Amino acid sequence: MIISLSQLKFSNANINHNFNKIIQNLEKFYQSDIIIFPELFLIGYLPADLLFQYKHTVNLKINELKSIIKKKKLTDKIFILGAPLYKDNKIYNSAFIFFNNKIYNYNKIFLPNYGVFDEKRYFHQGDNFIIIKVCNQKRLNKFKLKDFNIAVLICEDIWDDFSPVYFLKYKYNILVFIVINASPFEIDKQSKRLNILKTKANQTNSFFIYVNNLGLFDDVIFDGNSLVIDNKGNIINNLTPFKEEIFHFDLSYYLINSNHNYNKFSQSDLKKIFKNKTKDYLNFYKNFTTKFVDFEIKIDSNKLKIKINNDYSINNSMKNSPNDGNYFNSNHLEDEKYEIIYNALVFSIREYFSNSGFNKAVIGLSGGIDSAVCLVLAKKAIDNVIPIIMPTKFNKQSSINDAIKLCNNLNINYFIININDFYFNLRNILLKGFNFSDDFDLADENLQARIRAIILMYYANKNNALVIATSNKSEVSMGYFTLYGDSIGSIAPLKDLYKFQVYGLANYINKKYDNIIPIEIIQKEPSAELRENQKDEDDIPKYYVLDKVLYYHLEKKLDYNQIKNILKNQNIDLTKDLYLNIMNRIYKNEYKRYQTPLGFKISEFSFTKERRVPILNSFTSDLLCI
């Protein structure tokens, strides 16, 4: 029995593109029995309010796919496709199951409404199951290949505490769970997925076929990383992250060679898991309806004498999935994690440009580490990127030299537009026109950044290009950037990376590409170079302290005493005044963050869909429980 996992790249809210991708790959499934596409693949995850406009188009495409399957004589195969179901003036997040010229629907039960998810705004909860009853040909009896059941679930259905996995195992003795997913990328997400799949596989003695989306929903990345897990929690295969891939898995070979136990789940097994909530759990599903799809395996029994080859052997290591550990351990976020971050950001930049219809980028290059890393990422993602170096007298010649050296290393043409005279002439005009004193202050620093923004936007408009902003998460958290200045752009690739991660990524890039970023850029002290001898730590706390406080506050939601105790163990004394200063900076800069470019989510918490703090708020640090 060949089950095909289709980890194909979707284009969000582009039904024709996604539909055509299905059709273009049909020729690859003639030897398959079950073909699986991810959650909401037909429309992409997630078109948001455009869902309300798609009813007619979705229905047309579903019927067209049904006709094409029939025309190509593929009706004896099961196709599972994620798409919205429009029924009785409701929308369901549904798995369309095509078989024998009929369509069955399993509708997602648990609708996530946390983090980046907002599914309850659009979808209604499902209350049905579809069970595929797999019948084996009699001539396969000599291989002791018994009949078995397959259930189809959708993403959150396996994560929720009341997951239907256990009910389905108890009621229908499910051997294989097919799970279609739109599971967003985070640095450690694959290990979390594996943990939940391994746990459920071991608890239920069942196989899990986990097919995840690949693509981009604005700032939300879908990394693929689809999995086949056996009944003992071993990885049979882990598809390559950030890459289109179709994997054909022969379940029959595996069952025959593994002497699988077909024992049913008992109520005592349920009680071990749910304890005093077992009754509530069973009551939750008592009114669910179930439809059965009878499917017969048609195999040449002679082929079953072939021993399992390497394609189906157990692989106990995940691709690009780091081990958990202390987030700030020097060995933790090293090559393996930075490889994931690098691949995620290059993939996201490429997808953003591809789906927005642009193929050129422009970036302000300062000779600092943030713009250097952004330039490398952009170059590797879309190739066609132009850096512009825009110095004033406050920029050290060494910074200009470093920027030029990086461009030469990347073999990129660049422009140098010296804005010194422009800046001081404009400043004099403004001082005179407004009758301001000649004191040099923040407004004079920001004016430089805003002149640079004008130049970048002018070049971008002239060349039909997009501007890439270079701010990192540490700066964005503290409001340490110039609104309408260095924050302008369509995307900010480093927006969800703390400063220490930017350095780690730069070091990884240099290992990967033979020191392509000049070492002087990595070793120099961070500075915006907007005034004489400026250093970042003149205006914000030292990054090695700041990043830790931000991480434990934003990502881990810890309070002052918890963070203080953690940092104490690292020989860092976090004073109350410093903590409150950081908190005040975070919360008073909501209005600035709301006007920053989109940044790709790679962490547990990002400043995008996950943060819902009002711009107009009276929050002050004295409201914190300390």
Structure description:
With 626 residues, the chain is α/β, with parallel strands linked by helices. The chain folds into two domains: 2-312, Nitrilase/N-carbamoyl-D-aminoacid amidohydrolase (4-Layer Sandwich), CATH 3.60.110; 335-623, Rossmann fold. Helices cover 36% and strands 17% of the residues. The chain is built from 19 helices and 19 strands. It has a seven-stranded mixed sheet with strand order 13-12-9-8-7-6-15, with helices on one face. Strand 10 (214-217) and strand 11 form a beta hairpin. Helix 8 packs across helix 14 (499-512). It is elongated and about 90 Å long. Mean pLDDT is 92; it is low at 301-333.
Structurally, the number of domains stands at 2
**Sheet with the most strands: spatial strand order:** 13-12-9-8-7-6-15
Care to count the β-strands?
A: 19
Low-confidence spans: 301-333
The overall average pLDDT, rounded, is 92
Number of helical segments with 4 or more residues: 19
Query: Which CATH architecture of the largest domain?
Result: 4-Layer Sandwich
> Which of globular, elongated, flat, extended, rod-shaped describes the shape?
elongated
Which fold name fills CATH's third level, the topology of the largest domain?
Nitrilase/N-carbamoyl-D-aminoacid amidohydrolase
CATH superfamily assignment of the largest domain?
A: Carbon-nitrogen hydrolase
Broad structural category: alpha/beta
Q: Class of the largest domain, according to the CATH hierarchy?
A: Alpha Beta
Main sheet overview: 7 strands, mixed
Could you estimate the helical fraction of the residues in percent? 25-40%
Proportion in β-strands: 15-25%
